[in-house]
Design goal:
heterotrimer, A: mainly alpha, 0% strand, B: mainly alpha
Chain lengths: 99, 111, 529
């Protein structure tokens, strides 16, 4: 990205900032909601379900983080992040309400 | 004791990996190795490193693999430093490594 | 598409690695030293050096420890007997006293010689290795919660940098053994590659498991989903031994401690015990908690037995037969903390940790070199470059210097000083601050070189300082086969040697500047390609 480096326009800086925010916060909430849902699907004792799901959370966070930087379109990233977070949240609430 | 044997094996394996590289081979022995020779040395290195891993695992699976991780680091650092600062030592290591490994293997098998 | 993926990973590696690299260096440095946490506590406490290795049976030790506490602190609300181990030679007997409503209970720590059962004289007030252990994730002066979040994000960035680093540097595995110290900037790149590849399994493991140690702060969500009262409910399930036991007002007339221990020894005769805790030893709420030793097993939490102090019956046990999930989670934490390690593995851990420090340091330095190589001739350094160079020297050279200062402070501060432990820590931070201030003024190669020589000098004098202020020195340690203390002196000397060579290296590089400038350009060109 050296050409971009040379032309540090405001637009470019903002897009980098937005990407970092998407990776750090979007990635965080996406992971948090996915592991919460995951823990509901692991059919062992409650302690074990919690332990298994927290152990994979970091792996998930890393994958999301890297994916955010690998995908080109910023709008696409935010769209996918927000819809999937909302979807996961709804699904978790639905399952919990259904029990 | 067994872990020192595994460490020696690990160092030998990385010695072989280093010698499988043309540039390093040349800096130690002065001649260029043939393609076949490099390939053989490389394969030999893989066999030895698997052996080292096996020896570690034979002691304890978890603790052994931790030891193996550490031994990898130690071996690479030793071989790289030796190649950089004292390439002449690499020639003596060619004899020293197998002899000491064999000796240690015999001792640990007997006692 | 593939091309742009590698390009974005390169970009990610550079920026994620650099944003928090100085914090990461601090975390790695403190963590690496913390592998010798108990050893440093031992070194910092010269009165304990002369204690011979424990020869008593564990049940005798427990009995005499409890006997001591019965005499010394009958009114305490908790007794704690910590048994000696290979790493801690002394028998720990501590008692805790209630301080009234709203105040935290007060601990009194005492230590006994396990062979004579007499109190150890001349203990000094010091934090020992616990300082570095806490610094590793609490960053000392900072608010604990904020510090841990920061450490979490730094570790996450580290993990991302590691993964993207592996993706972009396909060649690192190819030129594994390449280290060309003659080639100026190229040497830094080689050092960076070598130190990251040689301990790559360790780096990945330690970063991942490090995040797992703080995971319930980072992701409390699964516990909050499954338990109505969230983390609290989960903790009650997962740590039954940490449940608070309320005192009763009825005094305990006939304690059944002996019955309890007799039951334990009969049913688990081979179990090695780590510590024994008795809650409320003087009233009927009394309960005995026995913690087993894990030895070299890859487990974090100790197996646990709880007996009633009034009847002597077994109330509950925990972790005698852990489930797979507990093994996975506990195993990760155990592997991170390395408590299970024997000296051999401990040193391997240490070498890998140092490799991590070198990896981070060389990354920081390369960045500064890259920026300065981009400057046009005649252009002066801008604020960003100055900041990076200053922070580089302050962390990379300042931290070892401050650590040496911490050790000196331990030996040289008067024993009667009030709050001596805090003063030792203060010395550490003052030296670090002074280094940082000096590096604001002098940032060039000369500053690096002089700091390297300064480090060499202080680490070289440390064994001498130790010999003058305590009864032992390197020769007597070897004669008495006190290998832990001997290896401290040897490690100090080795550190001095490394810094001396680095200083020499920097001095010789200053002469061949023309050469290094050319290679610097090549490195920049290669990195951009």
């Amino acid at each position: 990205m050296s050409q971009a480096d040379n032309a540090l326009t405001l637009r470019y800086r903002l897009s980098v900032l937005s990407r970092f925010c998407a990776a750090i916060f979007g990635g965080y909430f996406l992971t948090a909601h996915s592991v919460a849902l995951l823990s509901l699907f692991i059919s062992t004792t409650k302690v074990d379900a919690v332990l298994y799901s927290v152990c994979v959370s970091i792996l998930l966070y890393c994958c999301v983080f890297i994916a955010v930087f690998a995908v080109r379109s910023l709008i696409w990233i935010w769209l996918v992040l927000i819809t999937s977070i909302l979807g996961l949240d709804l699904l978790t609430q639905y399952i919990q309400g259904g029990i | 004791m067994i872990y020192s044997l595994a460490t020696l094996l690990c160092i030998s394996a990385f010695y072989a990996f280093a010698m499988a590289k043309t540039a390093h081979y040349k800096s130690v022995f002065g001649t260029r190795p043939s393609q076949r020779r490099s390939q053989h040395i490389n394969n030999f290195g893989w066999i030895i490193i698997l052996l080292s891993f096996g020896v570690n695992l034979s002691q304890a699976i978890g603790y052994g693999s931790l030891m193996f991780c550490g031994q990898l680091a130690l071996s690479v650092v030793l071989i790289a430093m030796c190649l950089t600062y004292q390439p002449s030592w690499m020639r003596s290591l060619l004899y020293l490594l197998p002899i000491s490994t064999l000796l240690l293997a015999v001792i640990s098998l007997v006692f | 598409m593939k091309e742009s993926f590698f390009r974005s990973m390169t970009w990610l590696h550079t920026w994620v690695g650099l944003l928090l690299c100085w914090l990461l260096f601090l975390i790695f440095f403190a963590g690496t030293i913390s592998f010798f946490r108990h050893e440093i506590s031992l070194w910092n406490q010269p009165a304990v050096h002369s204690i011979a290795h424990n020869k008593q049976q564990q049940h005798t030790l427990i009995e005499s420890g409890l006997g001591y506490l019965r005499e010394a602190a009958p009114e305490a609300n908790r007794w704690w007997v910590g048994l000696p181990s290979e790493r801690q030679p002394e028998l720990q007997v501590s008692h805790r006293h209630a301080q009234g409503e709203g105040k935290r209970d007060k601990w009194v720590d005492e230590r006994l010689d396990p062979n004579t059962l007499s109190q150890i004289d001349g203990l000094v007030d010091t934090k020992g290795g616990n300082f570095f252990y806490r610094l590793h994730f609490d960053l000392h002066y900072m608010d604990r919660k904020l510090a841990r979040w920061l450490v979490c994000f730094a570790s996450l960035f580290m993990l991302i940098a590691l993964i993207s680093g592996v993706v972009i540097h396909k060649r690192i595995f190819k030129d594994l053994f390449q280290f060309r110290p003659q080639k100026g900037v190229r040497a830094w790149l080689d050092a960076h590659n070598l130190s990251s590849v040689l301990a790559l399994p360790f780096h990945l493991m330690i970063t991942y498991t490090g995040l797992v140690t703080l995971i319930f702060m980072l992701f409390p969500n699964p516990a909050e989903t499954l338990y109505d009262d969230g983390l609290k409910g989960f903790r009650a399930d997962f740590y039954p031994e940490r449940q608070r036991i309320e005192a009763s007002s009825e005094p305990l007339k006939v304690p059944a401690f002996e019955t309890a221990f007799a039951h334990f020894y009969q049913n688990w005769p081979d179990q090695k015990i780590k510590r024994v805790i008795i809650d409320h030893p003087s009233n009927t709420a009394s309960s005995i908690k026995i913690y087993g030793d894990n030895g070299t097993l890859i487990r974090d939490e100790y197996p646990f037995w709880q007996y009633s102090g009034t009847t002597g019956e077994l109330l509950k046990t925990a972790r005698l037969d852990p489930s797979n999930a507990e093994m996975l989670y506990g195993g990760m934490i155990a592997v991170h903390s390395g408590r299970l390690a024997h000296p051999g593995l401990r040193w391997l851990y240490f070498i890998c940790g140092i490799a991590g420090c070198i990896m981070i340091a060389s990354g920081c330095v390369m960045w500064a070199k890259r920026i300065s190589a981009r400057l046009k001739p005649g252009q002066t350094a801008n604020f960003g470059l100055k900041l990076v160079e200053t922070l580089n020297i302050a962390t990379i050279m300042g931290l070892p210097l401050a650590t040496a200062g911490f050790f000196y402070a331990n030996r040289l501060l008067p024993e009667t000083l009030t709050a001596r432990a805090d003063k030792e820590v203060l010395v550490f931070f003052i030296i670090w601050l002074v280094t940082a201030l000096i590096s604001v003024l002098f940032r060039g190669k000369r500053a690096w070189q002089q700091f390297a020589y300064a480090n060499a000098l202080v680490w070289l004098l440390l064994p001498i300082c130790n010999a003058l202020t305590t009864d032992g020195n390197l020769v007597t340690y070897i004669q008495d086969s006190k290998w832990v203390l001997a290896s401290f002196d040897i490690a100090f000397l080795a550190t001095a040697l490394v810094f001396y060579f680095q200083g020499n290296k920097l001095a010789s590089q200053a002469h061949s500047k023309v050469h290094s400038k050319r290679s610097r350009k090549r490195v920049v060109a290669e990195q951009e390609a």
